[in-house]
Each structure stands twice: as structure tokens, then as C-alpha cells.
């Protein structure tokens, strides 16, 4: 039987198998969620019922019992002992009778109220509980309640007679004895009623536990069945992949034979290039200046994160256009150029890190505007996806003699940090990064502003420390701002610092903003190059 089922599913195509697997898993998870909700509502219903219909009425009964004992019976004893006057006792007894009447009415009202209908709880109890008919005795409850009503009437009547005969000491003593007997009797009835309600509460608790255990068992069985279905469908998918793999192997083998024939003439050149590359690799490793390979990899990974993210979105855009049938040659050319641009920048990053601490780095004249726009161009896909608006305010372009790629890395670090802050704290329609460039005396000043809420005061003094980060390990290494500080201060003889401000970044609304101020001397850079 199982083989027939497997062979039947094996005839499905790959897409149908995948969709069926997703459907089974999704339906199973939805069923588990529904069962969990059923259990939760059922338990909530039972506990609410226990609390509202059992606990609160029990408190009312205890109050009635205590009132008879303390406020009436003890007051009668005080009258007998002549500790208080009859007038004082009469006030206490009248107040006690009012309290008793109020509590008794509230008790009966709570028992007469119909609990809220929760169909899930009722269905579960209907199929899973069988003892309710044995322990819920409405006749007994009604009988006890009627006896209590009669006793209350008798006690009220005798208290009235007590008022008429309080001057006759002999009659008064007889009434006292009868009242004590009546009060003791009504307390016994109230105790019986309390025990009855407690018994119902305990039995309902047992039903709740039974229903919960059955639902848990059903949930576990559902999980096992889903797991088995998933394994079976996964096996079918793997077999399908194997067949595809064999087919592709045959095609690749055919193409390989053709490539071998074409590459025979290039074999010697390839061997020579491989030897040259090995020599270059040896020289590169010998000339490395970083303290450890781990630190180098962390630094490169930090700088590659944004261009890799942009390349990923370019690849995804091909898939999206393909699915929509809108893939054009112009679109391919545009995205390929963008990808090559990002790859070239990643390649330059490797060279920059390789020579990061080299004393013989060369400077060049470049436009600060071009450098900033180049950095934002590298990040444009990530910024567009995040819905971040860019504002440039560069009244006068400034040419400096410095390290173009290193300064671009500083801007990339600031862009990446601003993007993370904006995506975490600001709605997509309000995300803004603003860059202001100006010359102040002999310095070039770059203000880098975002409205992401600023840096918390308790960590503001740590943001330039190495390996300090508030992000997850997969999202940041904590070296971006540290590297930026090293580049600006040690390589460009400038300064960088941060502060929180309130700023009309879009000239409309005030925002809590983070401001990074970069100062780079212009004259000193030129003089140093001239030397």
C-alpha cells in the first residue's frame, strides 16, 4: 500500500511536489496552532468559571457565616453578659442582617447567572468528560438554599421577638437559647453549601486537566504525522534531484569534451599564468602588514557587506524581471554595469586593506563631491530598498590631496550605520541622510546627519572603540567607526566626532538626529605632498 502511494506521488512534477510539501507543513502547523488555541481558551474558560462561579460565591458564604457568628451571636453573648446595652446591640444586629441579606442575594445571583458560552470548551468537555452528571446535584443545592432561607426568616423573626421581650429576663433567656440554636443550624447549612461548591470546583479542575492532556496528546500525534509526511516528500524530492543531477552530468560531460578541444591551445599559457599567480600570492602573503589573518578578514568583511548586499539585490532583480516577463537587454546592461562597478570597488578594498599600514602609500588629488557621490552610489541599492532619502548640500566643491579609497570607506561606514539606525527607529517615509560640505578657514568640514534618533548617551563614548558594537555578530564587527577614526586622524591628520542634535533635516519637521563631524586640513595635505 505504501509503495503504491509513493509511486503515485513520484509521478508528480517537481513544482507540484514542492507545493504539496509546503501545503502539508503549513496545514499541519496551522492545525497545531488551532489546537493550542483550543486548549488555551478551554483552560481559560474553566479557570474563569472556577473563579467567578465558585471562588467569589464561597467568599460571600464565608462572610455570611462570619457575620452570624461574630456580629450576631457574639453580640447576643454580650447582651447576656450585659457588656453592652440592648440599644447598642440592636444597631449592630440590624447592620449585620443587612450585610447578610446583601451577601446572600449576591450569592444566589451569581449562581443564577449563565456563564459566557465558549463553544470550544463545551465541545471538548462534551467528548472528554463523563463525570459531570454524577457530581452536580441541583436538587441538593436547591434544598440547602431553601433551608438557609427558612433559617434566615426564623432568625429575623426571633430577633424581632427579642426586641419585644427584652424587658422580660426569663423570656429573653429562652429567646437567646433558641437564637443560638438557629444560628448554629444555619452555619451548618452554609458549611454544607460551601463543601458542595468546593466539590464542584475540584471536579471541574479534573475535567480541565483531562481535556488538556488529551489535546496535548493529539497535538503530539499531529506533529509526528507532519514529520513523517515531510520525510516522505523530502525523499521524493531528493530522488527527483538525483535524476536531474544525472541528466545535468551527461550534458556537462558533453560540453566538457568540447571545451577540452578549445582549451588545448591555451593550456601552456594557463600553466604559466598559474605559476605567475602563485608567485604573486607568495609575495602578497610575505608583505602582509596586519597583525593576524582574522583581523584582516573581519575588516574586509565589514567593507564588503554593503556592496555584497547590493550585488545580491541586483541578482534578485534579474529573477523578479524574469518572472514578470520584463527582462530587457537595457535592464541587463544597466545591472551588469552596476555589478561590475561594485565588484571593482570590492577589489579596490582588498588593495586598500593590504596597504593599510604601508608607509609608501601615494596620495592623489580628487574632488570631495565625487568621493561622496561614489560612496552613495556603492550603497544605492541598499538605500533604495530601505526607502532612505539622500540630501546633498555642497555649495562649493573642494579638491584635496589625500587617499580617495580610504575616505570612501569612511563614508561607507557612516552610510551603513545610518541605514541600520533608520531601519530600526524611523518609518520608511521619514528616513533621511543629509551631507553638508563646507570650508572653514584651512579645514574642510563634512557634516554627516541622519534622523535615526541619535546615539544613546550611555554608549556614545564607546562608539569609536575597536570591536564595540550593538548589532548582532552577523550584522557588524564593531570595527567600522574605529577604522574610520584611524583613517581620518592618523592618515589624514584630521578629526572625527559625534553628537546628538535636534535638526530640521528636511526643512519641515524637527527630528532627533545623529551628527558626525569630519574635519580634514586642506593646506597641510597640499604642503605634505609638495615636500
Protein architecture, described:
The chain has 531 residues and is α+β, with helices and mostly antiparallel strands. It is built from 16 helices and 7 strands. The chain has helices at residues 2-10, 14-80, 86-112, 119-128, 132-135, 138-164, 169-263, 267-286, 293-324, 329-354, 368-378, 380-386, 404-425, 457-460, 480-491, 523-530, and strands at residues 364-367, 389-394, 399-402, 432-440, 443-450, 495-503, 511-521. The strands form 2 sheets. Strands 2-4-5-7-6 form a 5-stranded mixed beta sheet. Strands 1-3 form a two-stranded antiparallel sheet. Strand 4 (432-440) and strand 5 form a beta hairpin. Helix 2 packs across helix 4 (119-128) and helix 9 runs antiparallel to helix 10. The longest helix is centred in the middle third of the chain and has 95 residues, at 169-263. It starts with a helix and ends with a helix. The model is unreliable at 130-134, 284-296, 356-360, 472-476 and 524-531 (pLDDT under 50).
| Uncertain spans | 130-134, 284-296, 356-360, 472-476, 524-531
The proportion of residues in beta strands is 5-15%
Number of H/I helices: 16
Radius of gyration equals: 42 Å
Please give the alpha-carbon distance between the first and last residues.
Answer: 89 Å
Major sheet strand order: 2-4-5-7-6
Mean pLDDT: 76
Protein name: histidine kinase
Catalytic activity: ATP + protein L-histidine = ADP + protein N-phospho-L-histidine
GO molecular function: ATP binding; phosphorelay sensor kinase activity
Enzyme class: transferase
Amino acid at each position: 500500500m505504501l509503495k503504491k502511494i509513493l509511486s503515485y506521488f513520484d509521478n508528480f512534477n517537481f513544482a507540484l511536489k514542492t507545493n504539496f510539501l509546503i501545503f502539508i507543513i503549513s496545514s499541519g502547523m496551522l492545525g497545531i496552532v488551532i489546537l493550542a488555541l483550543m486548549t488555551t481558551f478551554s483552560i481559560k474558560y474553566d479557570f474563569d468559571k472556577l473563579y467567578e462561579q465558585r471562588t467569589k460565591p464561597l467568599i460571600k458564604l464565608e462572610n455570611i457565616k462570619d457575620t452570624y457568628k461574630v456580629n450576631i451571636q457574639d453580640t447576643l453573648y454580650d447582651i447576656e453578659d450585659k457588656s453592652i446595652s440592648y440599644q447598642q446591640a440592636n444597631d449592630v444586629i440590624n447592620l449585620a442582617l443587612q450585610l447578610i441579606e446583601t451577601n446572600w442575594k449576591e450569592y444566589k445571583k451569581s449562581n443564577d447567572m449563565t456563564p459566557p458560552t465558549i463553544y470550544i470548551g463545551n465541545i471538548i468537555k462534551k467528548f472528554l468528560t463523563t463525570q459531570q452528571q454524577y457530581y452536580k446535584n441541583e436538587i441538593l443545592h436547591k434544598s440547602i438554599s431553601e433551608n438557609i432561607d427558612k433559617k434566615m426568616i426564623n432568625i429575623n423573626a426571633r430577633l424581632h421577638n427579642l426586641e419585644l421581650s427584652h424587658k422580660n429576663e426569663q423570656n429573653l433567656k429562652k429567646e437567646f437559647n433558641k437564637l443560638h440554636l438557629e444560628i448554629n443550624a444555619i452555619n451548618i447549612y452554609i458549611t454544607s453549601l460551601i463543601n458542595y461548591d468546593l466539590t464542584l470546583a475540584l471536579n471541574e479542575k479534573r475535567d480541565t486537566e483531562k481535556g488538556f492532556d488529551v489535546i496535548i496528546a493529539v497535538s503530539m500525534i499531529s506533529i509526528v504525522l507532519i514529520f513523517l509526511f515531510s520525510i516522505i516528500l523530502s525523499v521524493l524530492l531528493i530522488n527527483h534531484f538525483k535524476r536531474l543531477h544525472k541528466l545535468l552530468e551527461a550534458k556537462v560531460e558533453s560540453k566538457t569534451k568540447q571545451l577540452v578541444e578549445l582549451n588545448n591551445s591555451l593550456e601552456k599559457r594557463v600553466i604559466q599564468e598559474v605559476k605567475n599567480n602563485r608567485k604573486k600570492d607568495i609575495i602578497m602573503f610575505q608583505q602582509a602588514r596586519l597583525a593576524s589573518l582574522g583581523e584582516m578578514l573581519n575588516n574586509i568583511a565589514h567593507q564588503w557587506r554593503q556592496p555584497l548586499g547590493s550585488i545580491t539585490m541586483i541578482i534578485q532583480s534579474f529573477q523578479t524581471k524574469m518572472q514578470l516577463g520584463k527582462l530587457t537587454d537595457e535592464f541587463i546592461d544597466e545591472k551588469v554595469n552596476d555589478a561590475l562597478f561594485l565588484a571593482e570597488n570590492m577589489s579596490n578594498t582588498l588593495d586598500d586593506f593590504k596597504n593599510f599600514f604601508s608607509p609608501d602609500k601615494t596620495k592623489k588629488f580628487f574632488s570631495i563631491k565625487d568621493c561622496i557621490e561614489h560612496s552613495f552610489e556603492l550603497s544605492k541599492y541598499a538605500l533604495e530598498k530601505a526607502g532612505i532619502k539622500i540630501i546633498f548640500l555642497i555649495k562649493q566643491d573642494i579638491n584635496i590631496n589625500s587617499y580617495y579609497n580610504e575616505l570612501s570607506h569612511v563614508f561607507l561606514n557612516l552610510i551603513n550605520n545610518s541605514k541600520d539606525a533608520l531601519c530600526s527607529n524611523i518609518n520608511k517615509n521619514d528616513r533621511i541622510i543629509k551631507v553638508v560640505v563646507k570650508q572653514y578657514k584651512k579645514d574642510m568640514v563634512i557634516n554627516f546627519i541622519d534622523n535615526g534618533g541619535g546615539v544613546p548617551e550611555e554608549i556614545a563614548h564607546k562608539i569609536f572603540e575597536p570591536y564595540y558594537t550593538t548589532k548582532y555578530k552577523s550584522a557588524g564587527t564593531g570595527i567600522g567607526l574605529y577604522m574610520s577614526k584611524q583613517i581620518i586622524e592618523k592618515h589624514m591628520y584630521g578629526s572625527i566626532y559625534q553628537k546628538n542634535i535636534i535638526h530640521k533635516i528636511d526643512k519641515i519637521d524637527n527630528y532627533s538626529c545623529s551628527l558626525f563631524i569630519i574635519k580634514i586640513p586642506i593646506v597641510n595635505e597640499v604642503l605634505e605632498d609638495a615636500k
